[in-house]
Write a structure and sequence with these properties.
The chain is built from eleven helices and no strands. The protein has one domain. Helix 1 crosses helix 9 and helix 1 runs antiparallel to helix 10. The chain is mainly alpha-helical and 292 residues long. It is a multi-pass membrane protein. Its main location: membrane. Belongs to the binding-protein-dependent transport system permease family. LivHM subfamily. Keywords: Amino-acid transport, Cell membrane, Membrane, Transmembrane, Transmembrane helix, Transport. This is Branched-chain amino acid ABC transporter permease.
Length: 292
């Protein structure tokens, strides 16, 4: 029973990171109706920026905030400069552009910082949390920061004018324009928020998986699995889906001997395939019906 509780608690902490990645993917999907395949590489690049700031002598938490702000500005600028001109292009060209961005960030990080695996500091440490063997201090910190971000996002989208405008622009751009919402800028803000959330996820997971240009490849797949499980049209579903994927991954790796630690990524791929076959809109996604 203790092992079961430990795996659930650890999966919940890891799943909170997947939830952040899933949420950032859903935010971009709602804005442009395409998955951003470069989401993980953008988070990885931001994490390298944080490491560079720390190496320059900037305290961890100040570097954390600065990186989040830089990532927000970078995501907003990316939408204005590269994404917006291609919105009227074919879906194929947009997918090619996302793959090009993924390659650009990956190779750029390797060219600037090298491909050597680096350690990334944790402000929480890895001792048992409150003397318990269930989760470590870092896992508890990951969970706490992730839940805080999700709570702030909930308040922002539910009670602020800008958040409500972003929600309206994503749900019905035509009607939003008719009531004066600047849909283009709302989309850009969505990209900025998604980039900032991805940067936070990268900085929180880097002390566990270590920092190198390919560190977010697996995390991105888990995040996409969480988004598909919860529903690509539901931010709440993305959060719930990411946490469920974290728990499922831990449980399967512990109790199914064939999977172990090396085949855990297979669980995320199976979740994606199963949901696309059984319920393509996800657990919380809404069914969109268009009149033709």
């Amino acid at each position: 029973m203790e092992l079961l509780i430990q795996q659930i608690a650890s999966g919940f902490a890891t799943g909170a990171i997947y939830a952040c990645v899933a949420l950032s993917a859903v935010m971009i999907y709602q804005a442009i109706h395409h998955i951003n395949f470069a989401q993980g590489e953008m988070a990885m690049f931001s994490t390298f920026i944080a490491l560079q700031l720390i190496l320059w002598g900037i305290p961890y938490w100040l570097a954390f905030v600065m990186t989040t702000v830089i990532s927000f500005a970078g995501g907003l600028a990316l939408e204005r400069i590269m994404i917006r001109p291609l919105l009227r292009s074919s879906a194929f060209l947009q997918v090619v552009m996302f793959i090009a961005l993924m390659t650009l960030f990956n190779s750029g990080a390797g060219a600037i910082w090298g491909h050597t695996v680096r350690t990334f500091p944790s402000p929480f440490g890895f001792k048992p949390f409150l003397g318990s063997s269930l989760i470590s201090n870092h896992q508890a910190g990951m969970l706490g920061i992730s839940l805080l971000i999700l709570l702030l996002l909930f308040v922002f989208f539910r009670y602020s004018r800008v958040g409500l405008a972003m929600t309206a622009a994503a749900a019905d751009p035509v009607s939003a324009r008719l009531v004066g919402v600047r849909v283009g800028w709302m989309t850009a803000l969505g990209w900025g928020l998604a980039s900032a959330i991805g940067a936070v996820a990268g900085m929180l997971v880097a002390p566990v998986v270590y920092l190198e240009p390919n560190m977010m490849m697996g995390i991105l797949v888990y995040g996409f699995a969480g988004a598909v499980l919860g529903g690509l049209t539901s931010p709440l579903g993305a959060v719930v889906g990411g946490i469920l994927v974290g728990i499922i991954e831990n449980m399967a790796g512990t109790y199914i001997p064939v999977i172990g630690t090396e085949l855990r990524l297979t669980i995320a791929l199976l979740v994606i395939i199963a949901m696309l076959l059984i319920r393509p809109r996800g657990l919380f996604g809404r069914l969109i019906v268009e009149r033709v």
